[in-house]
Amino acid sequence: MTRTDGAKKGRIFTVELKSRAALRSASLSNGNQEGVLIEGTLGRLTSASFLDGVVLEVVGSEGVLRLDLQRQEIRGNAPRGRAGTGGGEDA
Q: How far apart are CA 43 and CA 19, in angstroms?
């Protein structure tokens, strides 16, 4: 996963699935909007941790989700105007 400066270019994410069967749907257009929808399953949770404190990695039996997110942001310490989960537990 190539990381960028989240404040300037937004968040990066990757989803790696072990098989096409884990992909529920992928849509490049969502009605009249220009949105993209990706749905699937990561399977049973195997682990969730931070890589170098800057990438949240959620590993399941069917795939891996990686998100450009710093540890302190998920604890609710994100600057105002950004969504945080509030006093969450360590992943």
A: 11
- 40 close to 58: Cβ distance less than 8 angstroms: no
What is the tens place of the pLDDT at every residue in 35-90?
888 999 999 999 999 999 889 999 999 999 999 988 888 766 555 554 444 434 44
Q: 40 has which bridge partners?
A: 23
Euclidean distance between CA atoms 44 and 63, whole angstroms: 9
Q: Would you say 79 and 38 are in contact if contact means Cβ atoms under 8 Å apart? A: no
One-character DSSP codes across 3-42: ---HHHH---EEEEESSGGGEEEEES-BTTB---EEEE--
H/E stretch holding 86 reads: none
Closest CA to 6 of 91, 67, 81: 67
**What amino acid occupies position 74?**
I
Cα–Cα dist 49/73, whole Å: 14
